[in-house]
Amino acid sequence: MTPELIGMMLMAVLGAVVLYTFIGFIPGTDETSVLAPITLAVVLSGAPPEVVLAFFVSAVVTLNLMNGIPTALVGLPGGVMSAPLMEHSVFLRNRGLASETIRKMAVGSAIGTVVSIPLSFILAGLLAPIADPIKAQTPVILAAGTVLLALLGTNRILALVAIIPLALMFQALPTLYRSVNIIGEKGNVNISFFLGITVGPMLITLLELLNAKRRAALPHGTRTRTSLLRSGFESQALMPGRMITRSEGRWSALMAAVSTPLFVLSPVGLTFLLGEASVARQKKDPVRRAQRAVTVMSSLTHSTYLAGVIIPLVALGIPVSGVSAGPAGPLFNAPPVYDLGNNLHHRLQLPGFIAAVVVGALISVVITYVIAVRWSSQITYFVMRRIPHEAVLTLFVVFILLLAYIDAGVPNMFGVLLVGVVCGALNRLGVSYGVQFMTLYAAPGIITALAAIA
């Protein structure tokens, strides 16, 4: 590893920390919609694989912690992964403990990161010897993963029913493009559809504004009022031992370890399930219960995400988890730079993986830890006052339309619109991102199997 490459990795990590620190403080952003497009841009820029991986890991660590801070301070979830923390965070905020909650989140995130990375590499090493037989059954594995995620969702029956229609749509549009020479025989627009899925719920919300009745039913002439406690603007001690109890630390490490082998499951579901399990017997003191919950859940948001990308990437090279198929999708499939037969799994050796992950995770967790403890209230105040939420969302929508145009011209912009509307509507009805992303990757195998049956 050359000094030039190390310098590029450090720049990528610091860039991710700066960017996702501010994005993470914006309430209502979704992890997939803000991680995948920018990671894709880094991939398409031609950055070395080590730089891409270090950037993504740093972005995950930064975003997952920063998303929890608006939840603790103003009761607005920063992203999907912070939703499980909402109830406990709001309870502690109402007790005047918002600043202490953020400090516990910071320590929990550090514990989850430190525990999950070595365990993920160990599990990847155990899976690597049987990787070839596993990859030989890729269509079956992807289809099975899609069904598994559907069964773990909130609306199981609809999610199962939606798999085949979504697969037909994902395969039909490229076939139509090829039939009229919009793309070549080997052309691929999967990355456009991937981004169409990410923007789907937001697109549905924007299109609803064109409906006069729905627009009239929205709140008018009011603003969301938030308040920040003065104690949050004071400097705080940085020693982790002073911020959490031994019990909170032990439960955070234990649940991070338990969640790592379960990397194929939904990170949100695991965070909620294991986080609540950690406080199941803590019923006497509601404050202590809530404090342990936010610490453990912060640990889980990091461990589930990191395991979900490290293990499939190092051991298999195919997306077999919700994280690898969603936010980390560009690391596996980003034509023309990466595809399922030539991605980071094939371009990096184990030392390269370890170096990129360790550099990206440790630098970002140290920086975000200090930011969360010392300056979270100041940054929240700045972002809420000075950065329009709409401007950030518009930037991502425009970026996705640009990539759709680059992939297959104007027709594909409307194709992505179709994908976004369908997937956004299904998302609202309970068909999760994970099911939709896995269906995108499993679609060729599903349609081939259907054709064989016919």
TrEMBL record:
It comes from Arachnia propionica. InterPro entries: DUF112_TM. This is Tripartite tricarboxylate transporter TctA family. The lineage of its organism: Bacteria, Bacillati, Actinomycetota, Actinomycetes, Propionibacteriales. The chain crosses the membrane at residues 6-26, 38-63, 69-86, 107-128, 140-168, 189-210, 251-274, 294-318, 353-375, 387-406. Coiled coil: none annotated. Keywords: Membrane, Transmembrane, Transmembrane helix. Residues 10-432 form the DUF112 domain. It comes from the Bacteria.
